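Form 12-C: Joint structure prediction
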Amino acid sequence: MDLHEAYDTLLGEFVREYIVLSQIYYILGWDFETYMPPKGVKQRSEELAMMATLEHDRLTNPKIGELLKTIKNDPKYFSLDEEKKRNIELTERKYKRESKIPKELVEKLAKHYPIATDAWKKAKKESNYSLFKPALDKMLELTKEKAHYLDPNKEPFDALVDKYEPGMSSAQYTKLFDELKEGLIPIIKKCVNSPNQPNLSLIKRKVSIPIQKQLSEDIAKLVHYDLERGRIDETEHPFTTGYYDDVRITTHYYEEDFSDSFYSVLHEAGHGIYEQNLEHKYKYQLVGESASYGFHESQSRFIENLIGRSREFWEFYLPRLKEMTGNVFSDVELDPFVYAINEVKPSKIRIAADEVTYSLHIIIRFEIERDLLSGKITTEQLPEIWNAKYKEYLGVDIENDSEGVLQDSHWAGGSFSYFPSYAIGNIYNAQMLAKMVEDIPFKELIKKGELKSIIDWLIKNVHSVSNLYDPPELIKRITGEEISPKYFINYLEEKFSKIYGFS
Amino acid sequence: MDLHEAYDTLLGEFVREYIVLSQIYYILGWDFETYMPPKGVKQRSEELAMMATLEHDRLTNPKIGELLKTIKNDPKYFSLDEEKKRNIELTERKYKRESKIPKELVEKLAKHYPIATDAWKKAKKESNYSLFKPALDKMLELTKEKAHYLDPNKEPFDALVDKYEPGMSSAQYTKLFDELKEGLIPIIKKCVNSPNQPNLSLIKRKVSIPIQKQLSEDIAKLVHYDLERGRIDETEHPFTTGYYDDVRITTHYYEEDFSDSFYSVLHEAGHGIYEQNLEHKYKYQLVGESASYGFHESQSRFIENLIGRSREFWEFYLPRLKEMTGNVFSDVELDPFVYAINEVKPSKIRIAADEVTYSLHIIIRFEIERDLLSGKITTEQLPEIWNAKYKEYLGVDIENDSEGVLQDSHWAGGSFSYFPSYAIGNIYNAQMLAKMVEDIPFKELIKKGELKSIIDWLIKNVHSVSNLYDPPELIKRITGEEISPKYFINYLEEKFSKIYGFS
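Section 2 - Result
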């Protein structure tokens, strides 16, 4: 078998099938979260376990090792183009990583995901952590086991992080987060202590769910999320799943606060357009996936915040909101509304947090999951520690677990070491924005509601680059610099000093 | 490896996994028909093909042959209980059958299903057969190829029929259908020629879709379809899919005629309760599947017609319908309404056909698909022949393909040799009813809306028996007799002579 034949077999027979299998897994997961009958949990758990082990089998087939050897030993390997070399590298990484995890563990984890998520949903509904704890214990135990197989010499958090941010570590996160905290805290203080506080009654007005659904479609289209290749559904916790021509987002509607779902949709549509605009010629190749969870968050939070919470956006959209909601907002003026939309206020719920305090929610989760995984804290202590950290970092009192430790679904799904990517996303996107404004008149375009050039910039620089580079290199290629929180801090300072009128 | 070990491996490793895979296939199919974004067709086609080939791989693994040999050569084989022997027999049949079909063909068929179905939907919408013809040609060609692999010595129709009605043949169908026609035609004539015709304006009144959805839930619950283990969605063509704890039905709402969806829901719920009440101890075994498509239809049409179109049902349900629909039906009286619900009138659309003419729709399809498969007629001639047969058998003029040859989705999905099962279902269910009335006061129970004993009878005699017996034996065990159309003819004569007032 020559180099090219080996490459084609590797991609056509193993990578391609692995990706198709993983897409089926995501469809089953989406269905589980959206429309599956409540008592279908156990059956679904069997199905997910089956798909996960099939994926694992595909990825760990010893033939992959042989093909990789054939390819890399061939003298012509070095003359392969970059895309092919990248595909080979990514395949080798995945093969090596996945081969460390026993199939039985993969099966157990996949089986436990719907069961733990179901327990989480019930616990959240009843605000009763004890209903979730046994399932969480098991998920944590299985996750630690996985971390141990991946790298017994690393802290579990660090062994797991590669899946979300290749090359990251808890040490680097700590460093970035320290810098972030240092920049955020003075801004938070100035905002919170400002004598003029926003008037939230400008936002929190009843908008019927059918109207909110129309808003969802309208803004999804506005940011070029393709509804012919996507959908918007409702789930307890908003998320995005899918790939290329079938990318689905979800939201959660609250009649009393349209902005909740409004920003969920913008956020998830930001994820959605990333997946929809991955380079089509790389479809079913590892190079054709997104760069990392942090890059994904950079796109979702770019749309949600840098666009959706800007004054310019509302200059364009407020008249439209008024038109679409009857007379609900007819008395509302631009500046007070933008002020309310951008209220900085330490709060309990991450996904409803403002741009400034948001990262503190992530830092809390980062510290907790690192310590949970290392065994420094137990699930028994979890609610107490959660609440104490919310008091310490954000100054808020958590009154029940539903608005505390039960608010996010990630741990139920086995996603540990994932949360930090959210904060990394903030850092990336402000850094990208600083570059984007050199290329196109960002604010002027938004004012006119002409988002096409902005989305095109993201497609060109991020989406269609797909997984050609690891995140550290990708951010450097896009912005000319290594990852740095300073742009994000600068962005916040500039924006909020204007809104809150401090200097 | 001893007998029991071989049996456990066979069931645990191969049959179980095959069934889980096939359930995943059905979920993907359901999603394709309900919520998949329109441009996801090609991606879904890859996913379905992947699942179909995985199923095929599982079922045709040569180890199955070895395990079967080990089991059957063991002298203790004969002392195995009947359930185990049946599982072995069913596995052997499936293994032998599936092994004849090349994997490539399985893949092609699965890939073509969503593409052909998509083409069919568009063609139906535009009532333009030529949009569907190329996809149908390809599906027909692949199906003929499959039939040839299954048995080159049989007519293609007969090679395929085992999947739907084990042991049936076109010769037997012809015989049964001749008997059926002979009984039906005089009844149809008497009804059609009756001077008193029903007043359809008693039914065809506008009922809003949200109210119709409430009706759907109400009647689904009434017939004990478990919505905790099921759902009701909307599709172009109603269907049921799923297994045990996740069984899904669909319907299609028309504002101007509530009865359309009403009977679709009763029909599909009849399928649904069959799947939900399969014997739980047989789950993930071949003996734990339904007996045949004909038996499935016997259950759906039992609920739809024998219960849902009876005078006794409306004695109970008409007041409820009135209550749930405001004053839409407030002036309606029982007998004229039952008369209208049971109008016998040769018509164009199978799923809207009355109980008497329904079987003629099936006979037309049976003749056509038999001839299409044998090459006696071409897809070029199809609309013309379809329309000619509708004129000949039912006396109706088909004005466009949407209400003609494009009305059903089956051929787009590759389901050839399936239609006759619908008529067989009518024969089975009337035969079962004749037996049921010996055991329980069928009519009195319906009058009171107390369906539990009726459903329990079906669970005991059909659902929970699952796939322990082939259809010919099952019908004999239930009724003491071989399949016979006479009960169905008697049932129709008795019912319609009363309604139409002839003798």
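Section 3 - Comments
Chain B is about 60% helix and 5% strand. The two ends of chain B are 68 Å apart (CA to CA).
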